[in-house]
Amino acid sequence: MIITVDEFKEMGFQAVDEELASDCIKRAEFVLNGLSGGKAVPTALAGGAAADYVKQACAFQANAILRKENALRMENGELKTEKVTIGDFSYQSTGDSSADEPFDTNFTVIRLLRAAGCLYTGTEVCE
Fold it and tell me: CB under 8 Å to 51, separation ≥6 — which residues?
């Protein structure tokens, strides 16, 4: 796995159900590998700044999946509050609607993967 549940929590994300969080992290890894053409895992294992970007992308994607799963599992219309803090960046949301997203997770994940160099698909020019 790109990140563990403990790393997910260390990044400031909440995971009440660790088994569900682990499943969401695995699914996020599938998404990142698909987006990057299989470059996400090797980049994460290589270490350095690029690996940190991939791990952050995995955490954001896993959090988006986890929020959807939690929304499906909500009982009796109970609203939950979620607070996420990563460095100087923080946000808080209440409810189960994807409209509560303070930013577009998809673009955040893409930007992080691009910063890690996982989305470069240039070809060599032969003379």
Answer: 43, 44, 45, 116
Of all helices (H) and strands (E), which one includes residue 22?
helix 18-36
Beta bridge partners of 94: 81
Strand partners, 86: 89
Q: What is the largest CA-CA distance in the chain?
A: 66
Tokens of 93: 């949301």
Whole-model pTM: value is 0.74
pLDDT digits (tens, 9 = 90+) for 76-122: 455 556 667 777 777 666 554 444 555 578 889 999 999 999 987 66
